[in-house]
Design goal:
about 375 residues; alpha/beta; Rossmann fold; two-stranded antiparallel sheet; 12 strands; about 30% helix; Proteasome_assmbl_chaperone_2; PAC2 family protein; PSMG2_sf
Length: about 375
């Protein structure tokens, strides 16, 4: 059997002049040294790394479960604002079916340029407080899931990763006027119990995220996943609020300070646009009202928060951002917090429906809300 790590091309530490791989090169003179280094074509931990400095891994890729363009927004936010260094790239020619998902290329006058190849990259990133973590992002592969998962598992073991967090999103019949729901899963009860707003029992179509989580669990590695619920009529476009929620869950679980300011502002802007379009169409108003009734009927009355303790009140939408920062700065790992889904109602979306019902100019959502006795579609968990 081929070595799964043969799928990886390891990148040596940049010398500070290559800005294509890093926003701020971790190996440059003015920033902390990289925790992971390349030796003989393999990724290894620096020898001076102690148990307290163990890395965590955040995974998000576009594809099967990427409603609201979650993966793209996470990559833009994390790699656009935080110091990072590209550690390795997967061999895309081995993993992707170009004819089923044809890449984009630019044609100008009489020439082609800017071929947008699929990618799957591993980065080392430092959060706002300088804490390093690993980030695996890109496109969900079409082929060799077992081999890709084995490669990730070998990296987890070789780099002594303490926790893997996977975040993804599904388009479900939920209203944009309610907080984003979540289905939490994995083998860390302290990070998942009491958090899910909906957790059905069902047979579902698997994506690579689900398969990787299964493999990590079988290997007895600590792993949790957060599947966010995006209103189905806004799932095809960019939905900044789902990215905010994902960063809040991931940041709290990994004890990292991750950037959400720009995404929150985008959420406010798009939420205003969505509200305006809904108010202009009585049929859409009726659909949203039915979704609200359905949501309220099935909503979980009590929900833990990763950011507060048992005897504390759950933070409201305006307090949540400040709570994340305070928690990550002062949290005692011996005292686990009690989780709640993000309560921020400032939802943003590029109102393009997953089913083609909406656009920025016209929501065009069909009046097809679930009836009162219907429950939101299974979050593929």
């Amino acid at each position: 059997m081929k070595d799964p790590l043969d799928l990886l091309h390891v990148h040596p530490a940049a010398d500070g002049s290559d800005e294509s791989d890093s926003f701020v090169n971790l190996g440059s003179q003015n920033t902390p040294e990289s925790t992971v280094s390349a030796e003989a074509g393999a990724l290894v931990l620096r020898e001076d790394q102690g148990p307290a400095e163990r890395l965590s891994l955040l995974v998000s890729w576009s594809g099967h479960t990427d409603a609201g363009s979650l993966s793209e927004q996470l990559s833009d936010s994390l790699l656009g604002t935080l110091p990072h260094h590209r550690l390795a790239s997967f061999d895309v020619d081995e993993l992707f079916d170009y004819r089923s998902r044809r890449p984009q290329i630019t044609f100008t006058d009489n020439q082609f340029s800017d071929f947008k190849s699929p990618s799957l990259e591993l980065y080392e990133v430092r959060d706002a407080l300088g804490q390093p973590f690993l980030f695996l992002a890109g496109d969900e592969p079409d082929y060799q899931w077992d081999r890709v998962s084995s490669a990730v598992l070998q990296l987890v073991e070789r780099l002594n990763v303490k926790l893997v967090v996977l975040v993804d999103a599904l388009g479900l019949p939920t209203p944009h006027t309610r907080p984003i729901g979540v289905t939490a899963h994995g083998n860390r009860p302290d990070l998942i119990e009491g958090i899910s707003t909906w957790g059905p029992t069902a047979q579902i179509e698997a994506g690579l995220s689900q398969f990787l989580e299964l493999r990590l669990t079988q290997a007895q590695r600590e792993v949790v996943g957060y599947t966010l619920h995006v209103p189905h009529y806004l799932a095809a476009g960019k939905f900044p609020h789902v990215a905010v929620a994902a960063l809040e869950y991931a940041g709290a679980a990994l004890e990292l300070m991750l950037p959400t300011e720009e995404l929150r502002e985008a959420s406010r802007v798009v939420d205003q646009d969505v509200s305006r379009q809904v108010q202009q169409n009585s049929e859409i108003q009726g659909m949203v009202e039915r979704l609200e009734r359905n949501f309220d009927e099935y909503a979980t009355p009590q929900q833990r928060s990763l950011l507060v303790k048992d005897d504390e009140a759950v933070p409201d939408a305006e307090e949540l951002g400040a709570a994340v920062e305070a928690y990550l700065r002062h949290h005692d790992p011996a005292e686990d917090a009690v989780p709640e889904a993000p309560a921020d109602r400032e939802i943003a979306a590029d109102p393009e429906s997953e089913t083609g019902h909406t656009s920025q100019e016209d929501t065009g959502v069909e009046d097809d809300a679930p009836s009162k006795d219907e429950h939101p579609t299974d979050p593929e968990r």
